[in-house]
């Protein structure tokens, strides 16, 4: 790459749209070390034939970070050795709100990196009666200024030309005298670091703790300079902001002329009076949530069935034509089945993110936060947590990805931690099987079906647990970030359909490549555990049934089912099931349920299929009535009593309500939190909670 | 008086702040002493609130608006 370009700007300035415009699909997502925010880079061709790497830095209102995500901006711009350090900064501002946006410009300009100012949304600001004199602005700032509209593809080529014409040496005027804010401390830092930049020195004083490129000794020396000159960070920041706004007022006074302030926002205001109305606001929001829920629950089931059928077809074909043997089985039942288990999530992810990106783009999501803040903040959640929680009713995986949109780190973490407690669609087959075993299908008060009521109670249990755990975590999770709710309510706009498609594509791709590897690894481990057994047990089973299989006069299907049952019992999973029996006996479970608990770590619904194999049901998990019969007839070999009593059934349902029985969720939490700490905490707390809930329920009811 | 005491449609001029850290954030967002703010609406449950300042709409919790001293 010939040059590096960084996009810097406030949130809601259309920075991401510009990024998509410049780079098209030539994007890749990487990591900033030690932080959960994604690093988006892309490539573009400039007019002079040179190539440029573009990096999209997190949106921020100032160089002083209010969150860990925002701290990335200064970390990159302060460190000339950082591999993201730009040759040119494109500072993107919203032309319709120039003054506030220019605060960040004036801070970044003082760092002395070559830059171009891009006035975005000029078409909109002109409609609002705001006129900006570009020539005057260029003269006053000393940089190239380009007016663009990323959304409507206006001025993009001009911007690219400006980037390739940018000098290697910064030309912008640095007219704000920051040295007077803390002269002694700034001068001490300058001589310490051999820098002649006052503002860089001042920023180092403020946020050197975030800057990892300083050695421990340097950090101590900077700290010492801070102490000896009694440097007061917040006070100095406040003073600097006032000085900068004064400077901006004087510069912009004869650059911007604004004619239509009065009628500017009438359309947005009218919409707001309906969409945040006491009654209509909530009614519309619930309707939107219902549509989203229906889409990921019902609409996505068709493409999911196609994907499952497609992978099933490939597996069947493979078993027919490939030579029989361990490698064929590993390939088909381990790897291909694992891949199927990953791709099956794509419809839900794509559909949920289509909705989220529309809600964000139109500005409605900010109103959701605005409306829901009072309720949600009480339990440690965020207004934006509502969408992941409702999405959790269908599937926790896309919902946890959706928590990315929550800016506050603590709120985001709590949302990720509790979303899997909401009853997802994978629990439904388990609930239905057990309810049909232990709850009679009778009506009470003539209209309410008991089984239906029981199912509803299970869903309520999930939601209540999520809220309670969130409330507890509010006190446990510590953060240095101060939680503000000071945010911009952007005006309503039409969604950008291309952005919607990008988001759907990008989120699906991220899931497949980043969560996918964990899912494949776990599904291969589970396959090995279920397909192999110690010693010669499997050979003995094969030998035992060989004569029966050779008898061509009889139907061999049931023999094969019996073999599968016996092999599962003697596999490593079967042995593990026996091994954990003492631990799960107080919950009312036998080793057969133990096997089911282990295999359904892949996904909860696998419990039903495992029960089909264990109870030798020929039709597999399709034949639920036979599974039910066999299960209700089963007797505990130790006590001689039925296994599936009311107490065991309730205990088992509570276990599935709370336990993290889903490797895909573990994988996505790993990917979203960029480490194993949070998924492990989550796995442990949910399993412990499930164990004790099941224990208490069984001991009280038995 | 405090910004949080204003009713919908009322305007005031920012005089000062009673919390230093919050004032840094608020000033960055354009709430500078001398700026005129107007209360646009309250959330359906009474909190947070939306105000118009510096040509755009900003929302904040009442507890945050408490630190903004204004002159009506």
UniProtKB/TrEMBL annotation, chain A:
Molecular-function GO term, any one: ferrous iron transmembrane transporter activity
Transmembrane region positions?
Answer: 279-299, 330-359, 379-402, 414-439, 451-477, 511-530, 641-659, 680-701
State the coiled-coil residue ranges. Answer: none
Positions with a binding annotation for GTP 1: 9-16, 34-38, 120-123
InterPro entries given for it? Answer: Fe2_transport_prot-B, Fe2_transport_prot_B_C, FeoB_GTPase, G_FEOB_dom, Gate_dom, GTP-bd, P-loop_NTPase, Small_GTP-bd
Q: Which GO terms describe its cellular component?
A: plasma membrane
Q: Residues that bind GTP 3, according to the entry?
A: 56-59
Main localization category: membrane
What does this protein do, in the record's words? Probable transporter of a GTP-driven Fe(2+) uptake system.
Q: Can you say what this protein is called?
A: Ferrous iron transport protein B
Automatic annotation (TrEMBL), chain B:
Please list the residue ranges annotated as the Ferrous iron transporter FeoA-like domain. 1-72
Q: Which UniProt keywords apply?
A: Iron
Q: Which Pfam families match?
A: FeoA
Q: Which GO terms describe its molecular function?
A: transition metal ion binding
* Leader sequence residues: none
Query: Which InterPro entries does the entry link to?
Result: Fe-transptr_FeoA-like (IPR007167), FeoA (IPR052713), FeoA_core_dom (IPR038157), Transcriptional_repressor_C (IPR008988)
Q: Which SUPFAM superfamilies match?
A: C-terminal domain of transcriptional repressors
Name the record gives this protein: Ferrous iron transport protein A
């Amino acid at each position: 790459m010939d040059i590096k370009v960084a996009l810097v700007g406030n949130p809601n300035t259309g920075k991401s749209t510009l990024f998509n415009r410049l780079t098209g699909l030539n994007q890749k997502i990487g990591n900033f070390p030690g932080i959960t925010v994604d690093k988006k880079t892309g490539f573009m061709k400039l007019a002079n034939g040179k190539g440029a790497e573009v990096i999209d830095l997190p949106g921020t209102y100032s160089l002083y970070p209010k969150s860990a995500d925002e701290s990335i901006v200064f970390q990159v711009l302060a460190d000339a050795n950082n591999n993201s350090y730009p040759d040119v900064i494109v500072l993107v501002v919203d032309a319709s709100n120039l003054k506030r946006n220019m605060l960040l410009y004036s801070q970044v300009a003082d760092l002395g990196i070559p830059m171009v100012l891009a006035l975005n949304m000029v078409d909109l600001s002109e409609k609002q009666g705001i006129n900006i004199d570009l020539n005057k602005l260029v003269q006053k700032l000393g940089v190239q200024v380009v007016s663009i509209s990323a959304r409507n593809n206006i001025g993009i080529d001009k911007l690219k030309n400006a980037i390739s014409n940018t000098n290697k040496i910064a030309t912008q005027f640095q007219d704000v005298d920051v040295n007077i804010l803390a002269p002694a401390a700034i001068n001490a830092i300058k001589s310490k670091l051999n820098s002649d930049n006052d503002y860089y020195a001042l920023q180092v004083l403020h946020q050197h703790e975030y800057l990892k490129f300083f050695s421990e000794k340097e950090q101590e020396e900077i700290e010492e300079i801070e102490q000896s000159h009694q440097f007061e960070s917040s006070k100095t920041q406040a003073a600097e902001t006032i000085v900068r706004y004064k400077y901006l007022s004087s510069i912009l006074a004869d650059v911007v002329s604004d004619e239509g302030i009065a009628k500017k926002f009438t359309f947005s205001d009218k919409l707001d009076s309906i969409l945040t109305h006491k009654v209509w606001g909530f009614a519309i929001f619930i309707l939107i949530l219902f549509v989203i829920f229906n889409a990921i629950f019902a609409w996505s089931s068709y493409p999911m069935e196609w994907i499952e059928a497609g992978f099933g077809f490939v597996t069947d074909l493979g078993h027919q034509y490939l030579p029989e043997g361990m490698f064929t089985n590993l390939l088909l039942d381990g790897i291909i089945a694992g891949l199927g288990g990953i791709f099956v999530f794509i419809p839900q992810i794509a559909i949920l993110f289509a909705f989220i990106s529309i809600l964000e783009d139109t500005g409605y999501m900010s109103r959701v936060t605005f409306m829901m803040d009072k309720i949600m903040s009480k339990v440690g959640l965020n207004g934006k947590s509502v969408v992941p929680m409702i999405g959790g009713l269908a599937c926790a995986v896309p919902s946890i990805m959706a928590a990315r949109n929550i800016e506050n780190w603590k709120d985001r973490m709590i949302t990720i931690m509790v979303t899997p407690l909401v009853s997802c669609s994978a629990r439904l087959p388990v609930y239905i099987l057990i309810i049909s075993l232990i709850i009679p299908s009778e009506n009470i008060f003539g209209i309410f079906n008991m089984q239906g009521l029981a199912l509803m109670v299970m869903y309520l249990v999930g939601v209540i647990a999520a809220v309670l755990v969130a409330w507890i975590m509010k006190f446990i999770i510590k953060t240095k970030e101060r939680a503000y709710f000071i945010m911009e309510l952007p005006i309503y706009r039409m969604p950008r359909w291309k952005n919607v498609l990008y988001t759907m594509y990008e989120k699906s791709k991220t899931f497949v490549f980043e969560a996918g590897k964990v899912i494949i690894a776990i599904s291969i481990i589970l396959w090995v555990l279920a397909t192999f057994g110690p010693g010669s047990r499997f050979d003995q089973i094969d030998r035992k049934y060989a004569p029966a299989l050779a008898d061509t006069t009889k139907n061999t299907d049931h023999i094969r089912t019996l073999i599968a049952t016996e092999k599962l019992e003697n596999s490593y999973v079967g042995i593990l099931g026996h091994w954990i029996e003492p631990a799960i006996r107080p919950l009312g479970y036998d080793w057969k349920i133990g096997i089911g608990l282990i295999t359904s770590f892949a996904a909860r619904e696998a419990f039903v299929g495992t029960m089909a194999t264990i109870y030798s049901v020929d039709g597999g998990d399709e034949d639920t009535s036979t599974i039910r019969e066999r299960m209700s007839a089963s007797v505990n070999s130790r006590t001689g009593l039925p296994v599936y009593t009311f107490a065991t059934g309730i205990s088992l349902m509570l276990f599935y309500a709370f336990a993290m029985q889903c490797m895909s969720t573990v994988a996505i939490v790993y990917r979203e939190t960029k480490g194993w700490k949070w998924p492990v905490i989550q796995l442990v707390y949910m399993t412990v909670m499930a164990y004790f809930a099941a224990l208490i329920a069984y001991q009280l009811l038995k | 008086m405090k910004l949080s005491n204003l009713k919908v449609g009322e305007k005031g001029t920012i005089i000062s702040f009673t919390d230093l850290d919050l004032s840094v954030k608020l000033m960055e967002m354009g709430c500078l002493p001398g700026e005129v703010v107007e209360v646009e609406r309250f959330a359906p449950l009474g909190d947070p609130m939306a105000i118009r300042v510096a040509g755009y709409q900003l929302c904040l919790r009442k507890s945050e608006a408490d630190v903004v001293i204004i002159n009506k």
